[in-house]
Amino acid sequence: MRSPVHSLLFCLGLFVLLAEASPVRPDTRNTVQKRSFLVPRVKNENFQGHNGPRQLLRAYRKYSMPVPQGLEETVARQTAQAKLKARRGNGTGGVKATPIRNDVEYVSPIKIGGQTVTVDFDTGSSDLWVFTSQLGRQAQAGHEIYNPARSKTFSMLRGNNFDISYGDGSGAAGNVGTDVVDIGGATVTRQAIEMATALSASFVEDTANNGLMGLAFSKLNTVKPQKQKTFFDNVMPSLAEPVFTADLKKAAVGAYEFGRVDPAKFVGQMTYVPVNTSNGFWQFPSESFSVDGGAPQPGQAGGQAIADTGTTIILANPVTVEGYYAAVPGAVNDQQQGGFTFPCATQLPDLALDIGGLYMARVKGSDINFAQVSDTMCFGALQATTSDVQIYGDVMFKTQFVAFNGGNNSLGFAEHADGQGRPTQLGKQQQQKQGTGETQPLRGVVNESSAGPARAASLILVGAVPALTVILGWYI
């Protein structure tokens, strides 16, 4: 006959087994605390198409790089011609503006103090600023405006201000407060809001874009005298995983997802590399490259690169750029255009870029064909950096699915799973290597070759938390 103690232990064991085998109704508080969410993007109806020299100048200026001789003159000439064309009209009595910043093809809605404002997302900066009621009427016209007086949760950060400049020479400045920011149901109650009181004309002209959300590290924030945390830094403790992913595709709806890495979004395993946060960027080693699936070639010893969704093109070291275009018939370094051009009819080879010595990230040749500059010549989305740092912008993200992990300061790379990318032979070899344990996946993320009962159980628990979606914008 069993003793009362044995019976009690048996009941406790049975309870534990049932608890592990049965779905548990999630605690409401934990649902809010540990979640994942996705954000839908919307088309910027003012998008004017790509301009190669202008995007190159923006990238140089964003990172304070020396600008090659002639590039500024080229962009100034193009801008003057566009303005002249606009003044002449289109023969219908209407005059169409051509804002410089209308290279932002997609933007995304967020809520600040209950008010919806559509903004652009940028992993290369760390400020959340918006159009506000403090601007003049002319600057507000056509924009979604955040009015702190209409918010019951707004609080002024007296004595603080911000002043930020971007790659195209545009900028914003103003004062700072805090308010509730809601993105897809994920909420930060005291998020710093940088309220514009002065803006460059290019921002005012682009009525589909009403501000910017920075997703780099908080040390880049421009608020003075006290830097403020980014939305990602503030929301990170409430996420199921301290991560967001960039699933950015060419000519298709993509998204950023916060709180998990969705294994259905990529092929094979992800490769994770440590990030150097000393400068506030998502920065990592990148020393080699390959062309058209060939063997890796040395680029710049000790080379570093930044993963930046806020830069459209790729700025690589000159050895990489010259090595790539040497394989492109008719390619020339056109001083009048400020960079490499090639015959538009040329079928460009794929490029692969070294990621931390562990992975080669493929960039499709068709994506490097960026913009037409004459009847027969096109401008390349791969151009040379003029500093020690390389910038891997949206052109790379069109093939690569990328995870930004703020918990262990790492980046994960894999190719898109939906036909936007396909593993190269080199990539397949890398995936086989990763299966030996050379790289460590993020906690709670299932990779293609590592799913098992324990991992499946962790996904069930995470899956019990509602996943919300917010589509985000990027430069394309």
From TrEMBL:
Active site residues per record: 122, 308
Segment forming the signal sequence: 1-21
Entry-linked Pfam families: Asp
Key words, A-Z: Aspartyl protease, Glycoprotein, Hydrolase, Protease, Secreted, Signal, Zymogen
GO-annotated molecular function: aspartic-type endopeptidase activity
Region annotation Disordered: where it falls in the sequence: 419-446
Residues of the Peptidase A1 domain: 106-414
Assigned protein family: Belongs to the peptidase A1 family.
Protein name in UniProt: Peptidase A1 domain-containing protein
Organism per entry: Verticillium dahliae (Verticillium wilt)
Species lineage: Eukaryota, Fungi, Dikarya, Ascomycota, Pezizomycotina
